[in-house]
Design brief:
Length: 98
């Protein structure tokens, strides 16, 4: 099992990670928050500006829907996000057909 330090090593830059994703059009990026003292501690907090940069980069990689904020959670408002994603997919499909 990897140590805490080994788990923190990210082998790719965010722009490289976005290039590796196939058939994914909805991306959520949030800040890890330590739920209890028994869980891994937070190494650093990502700034809102960094999240904005991640979101812009993801959109430039053609993700249809991006949610990137410190408090983003994939299940929070999932129904509204799914409806927005469906609309974006239909718009993209209509543009491809036209």
């Amino acid at each position: 099992m990897p140590t805490h330090a080994e788990r923190q090593i990210v082998p790719y830059r965010p722009d490289q990670l976005f290039d590796l994703v196939a058939d994914v059009d909805f991306l959520t990026i949030g800040q890890y928050l330590q739920p209890t003292v028994k869980h891994a501690s937070v190494d650093r907090f990502v700034t809102p500006e960094e999240f904005a940069e991640y979101a812009a980069l993801a959109r430039s990689k053609r993700f249809l829907l991006v949610s990137a904020t410190p408090l983003t959670r994939s299940s929070y408002h999932a129904d509204a996000d799914f409806a927005a994603l469906q609309a974006a997919r239909e718009t993209r499909l209509a543009a491809q057909v036209a």
